[in-house]
Amino acid sequence: MKRVFIKYNPYQVTTEILIDDKPLKKNSKLNHPDQRLQEWIDKLPDILFEECSTKDFEITFHGTILDFEDVAAVAEEAKAKGINISLKHIPAKEVKDKEQAIKKIFEDIQDGPFEELKRPSVINAFKMASSKDFEVNVVACMSAGKSTLINALLSQKMMPAKKEACTATITRIKDNDADHFEAKVYDKDEVLLETHPLLTYEIMQRLNDDPSVSRIEVEGNIPFVNSEEISLVLVDTPGPNNARDEEHKATTYKMIDNSSKAVVLYVMRPPVGSEDDAKLLKKVADSMKVGGKQSRDRFIFVVNGLDEFKKDEDSIDATLKKVRDYLADNGIHNPNIFPTSALTALDIRTVLANSDDDDDDDVYEAKGKVRKFNRNKEMYFEEYAPLPASAKGIISNRLFKAIEEKDDKEQALIHSGVVPVEEAIRMYVLKYSKTAKIKNIVDTFINRVESAKTFETAVEEVATNEAEKDAIVAKIEGINAKLESGEEAKKFKNDIKKLNYDKEITDRSTEIVQKAEEKITDHLEKAKKKEMTRAEAEEMYKKLMVTASDVQAEMSVELENLVNSTVKKNANALLQRYKEKLADLVRELKDLGDVEIDPFEMMRGDISDMGDIESFLVNSTDTKQVWEVVGNHREYKEVFGLRRWLNRTIGTSFNVDYNVIDDYDWVEHEYIDGDKLSAQFIVPVQKKLYKNQKSAIEYAKKGAEMVKRSFAGKFDELDALLKKKLDELKRCAVDEEVAREKLEEAKSRKAWLEDIQRRVNAILEI
Ligand SMILES: Nc1nc2c(ncn2[C@@H]2O[C@H](COP(=O)(O)OP(=O)(O)OP(=O)(O)O)[C@@H](O)[C@H]2O)c(=O)[nH]1
Ligand SMILES: [Mg+2]
For ligand 1, is residue 143 a contact (CB within 6 Å)? Predict the structure, then answer.
């Protein structure tokens, strides 16, 4: 038997593994720097077996409960392979403790002696890091019950739901714990059409039927979460095949794409197996292949409508098995499947919450469902839910309480499967988003505190070092001279100008377009015949348009990712270049005395004020229009807005246009040549694909330019700040009075910083 010790810190994403108290060998496959536990834990038993040549292990796991439960699940599965793992858990600090500690530190900083830590940019960075929206995207191919499920999660009928294809707009609902819903309504070009301070179901219905409406931003209460805890956003989408425009289709693809980390509730309604569904599932399968267990956890498959279960005729187990087999046929293995009845949950939370009047048909019917769920053990859907033990515990406690209090509605609600889905969302947030969030927040402090400390240390050294006074002054003047030199400024400007990713983006986007083209030609190759009748030609054309629009939506997701990453790269390179410039400032002055004056270290905190490129980009996806002074008048200018670009690019959809077929000389000929026809069909499609590429390239350039412009201004500000700091140091060196005063101050300020630093670092420990 081998003893294995695993310490996993989900906040820092670090792993330490010891086998029989010895560290891992360098070439061990168990070395997983920078990877989440969930990305490699599945492979643990096999690798252990391979590297230790035994099948008996005792694993001691030091980490959070949720991570421990994943280890436990893997250990359980390993039994089937004859690998025996006994487990011990050393608990770690959980997310909740951390959040409180962070909040306290933030408050203390606001009351502390450092103005630079109270700047709006710091406060914003902190707020951004702590309130990042967490999206739950509800996706399905057809009317499987998306809107009904969202209504059930809202405990309120807000989203229009119907038997036939219904939802036509994208609605994002953000939790704010308020007692009413409000909405902002946008068209395709992101123009605000309407605002509703008090949103109702009737308004939502009208908006949904209005073809000019593209996106509705709603705020209101999502009862199963607390907005202080998670900033949850539920997104209702049209089924991609009845989307009003291709942009919505692209939105669904983007939600599924592995570049997204949001939870996807993939709703299905048996019987499963439509062709469209298979197409969408293939994308899900692709996305689930990357990123290990986290991507598996990200997709929650909701099998809805199971209240229609008939005793003695149906079997829930058999239905779920069919779904599982169907998913496996489409390349999805080990899916998290949750059986539900969204409608029952909604009725319990709305109809039955408001009335007990049996003469009301709705009440009568809803009560029937409650009875059905409570009577049939087979319909206790929570028992099928693939949840970790801690979540199961929460649910069974709730059920136990409901039974004790004879609350049959609450019991049926839990059995309806919607409560387990809510729990699954919460678990995901706790396991992945919250831990990452804590790291982000801590990061917003660490650099700034470090950097403030460097400056205080420099003050101390300068103020006490009589012997090197002249050297210090010379050093500071040297730095200043370089900072002010026109020569240096020109060099820096030139370096920045040289940064250019145009070729890279052209090459990559060409690949993307070629891939898209291939898909379409492949499709045509398969569809065409040497001789085609008019009916066949029309059919071929119709199908081509569907494929073209799919490919187009897919491509726009890839192009958008490309634009995003290019702009990001550009921003990072700029920052890097500025950091190098700071390091350069002291390069030739190193020999001037032992007192260290390091402009880069002193400025690190200020640099990180602008360094959160991720949120910078998020902000810039919204269209912004600003007034800009041009000569002696002002002009309205549009600023970088990714979303707007996306709409424009793919905004015009493929209209079915039968001209090619109509113009053919059918009187003379009975058949049309399939080769010729497909060659003609493909021209406008190709044109459009290339137009998309051109627009993506243009947009990436525009984005890069914008980043350069906005950074150039910031760099000037940073230079000015550095000069100020250097001046202060110089005054300490030349004026004894000032030195004495500053020294006293620096001591207590440094002690305060060290205390904060110790507390911040402790947060990331487990
Ligand atoms: N019996 C039963 N019917 C349901 C359930 N969930 C939804 N429905 C019904 O199924 C139909 C479609 O539901 P919607 O919520 O509109 O489905 P959707 O996925 O939003 O559909 P689209 O917006 O058209 O894509 C409606 O008539 C709902 O009442 C359920 O759990 N059980
Ligand atoms: Mg809907």
Answer: yes
